[in-house]
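Customer escalation, tier 2.

The customer says the design service returned an amino acid string that "doesn't look like it belongs to this structure." They asked us to rerun it and document both sides in this ticket. The original structure tokens are below, unchanged.
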């Protein structure tokens, strides 16, 4: 595919702006883009925090910009939308009409089925509101040259990268069942103040939430070639929140039609991800601390049995590989930069 988003000529940089820069994902985007060699960060937009200096909200990030109120400006080459679900739907048409590239970090454009979107997000959207799904390890060629990208969800990233080789490789051994328990750090719930996320509520505590109704469920099923309404395998997802700031730790228990040795599965995974710079198939058990503050996804094939069950563990940083880091990775592919630029 021809890359219609070719890099700028000479020393000219790609101009970028962030709408929703005051949240955790927006702050991580700001940090990454400030140091990106091919990007010039022009505007940081916010709503309730407009008028405040960015460095007042995030003193650890050296940035003297003031958060501005967004009122339809279309000055930059690329816009990152780091907004609550439902807001990007309102902004995308005008940005696309102005010829701007967009990477949306919300769930507004991930699902092809409007019925599933309404059921899981409790919002309606036009049938045409579906963008290129930006998971570089699975859809590398589609992302290159795309003008608008829907960035994957954080749980979906950790789970899909842990499952994809067994679903998307040329293998006759079918997966019949997946049980997933994934624990997210508190930052996954966003920056807004909520009593149930306070220190006194979450310290030395853990709890499940949205069991059976989490919005990343149809995203996972769609990417694996099926749907929640007519699934080709049994899928159970239990999201949990744990007493740590950032990271997602996913335990995937699969049932295969035919037993498979752990070594054979690990070999399949290494071959599947051989050209993926941010996926590491680990011989040893991975941990959240191995990936925090990085754009890596670590995967470990924990065990397999004679009955066909397999246990796979994956870990990511929910704010980087699960959000801002993956968004910059998508930007790099869209505009012809090295995929790892600004991320290592």
């Amino acid at each position: 595919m021809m890359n219609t988003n070719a890099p700028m000529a000479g020393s000219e940089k790609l101009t970028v702006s962030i709408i929703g820069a005051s949240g955790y994902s927006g702050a991580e985007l700001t940090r990454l883009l400030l140091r990106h060699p091919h990007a010039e960060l022009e505007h940081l937009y916010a709503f309730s925090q407009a008028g405040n200096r960015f460095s007042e909200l995030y003193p650890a990030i050296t940035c003297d910009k003031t958060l501005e109120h967004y009122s339809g400006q279309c000055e930059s080459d690329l816009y990152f939308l780091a907004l609550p679900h439902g807001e990007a739907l309102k902004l995308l048409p005008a940005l696309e009409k102005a010829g701007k590239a967009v990477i949306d970090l919300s769930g507004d454009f991930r699902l092809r089925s409007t019925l599933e979107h309404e059921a899981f997000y409790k919002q309606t959207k036009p049938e045409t509101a579906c963008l290129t799904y930006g998971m570089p390890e699975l859809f590398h060629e589609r992302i290159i040259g795309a003008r608008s990208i829907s960035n994957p969800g954080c749980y979906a990233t950790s789970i899909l990268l842990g499952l994809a080789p067994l679903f998307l490789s040329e293998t006759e051994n079918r997966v019949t069942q997946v049980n997933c328990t994934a624990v997210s750090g508190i930052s996954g719930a966003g920056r807004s103040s909520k009593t149930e996320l306070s220190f006194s509520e979450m310290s030395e505590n853990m709890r499940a939430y949205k069991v059976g109704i989490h919005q990343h469920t149809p995203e996972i099923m769609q990417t694996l070639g099926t749907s929640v309404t007519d699934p080709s395998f049994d899928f159970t997802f239990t999201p949990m929140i744990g007493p740590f700031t950032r990271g997602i730790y996913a335990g995937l228990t699969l049932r295969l039609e035919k037993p498979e040795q752990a070594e054979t599965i690990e070999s399949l995974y290494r071959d599947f991800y051989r050209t993926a710079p941010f996926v590491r198939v680990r011989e040893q058990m991975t941990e959240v601390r191995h990936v925090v503050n990085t754009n890596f996804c670590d995967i470990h094939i924990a065990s397999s049995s004679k009955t066909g069950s397999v246990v796979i563990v994956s870990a990511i940083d929910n704010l980087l590989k699960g959000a801002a880091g993956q968004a910059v990775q998508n930007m790099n592919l869209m505009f012809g930069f090295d995929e790892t630029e600004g991320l290592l």
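Tier 2 assessment: The sequence is consistent with the input. The mean pLDDT is 94. The first strand starts at residue 14 and ends at 19. Sent an explanation to the customer and offered a walkthrough call.
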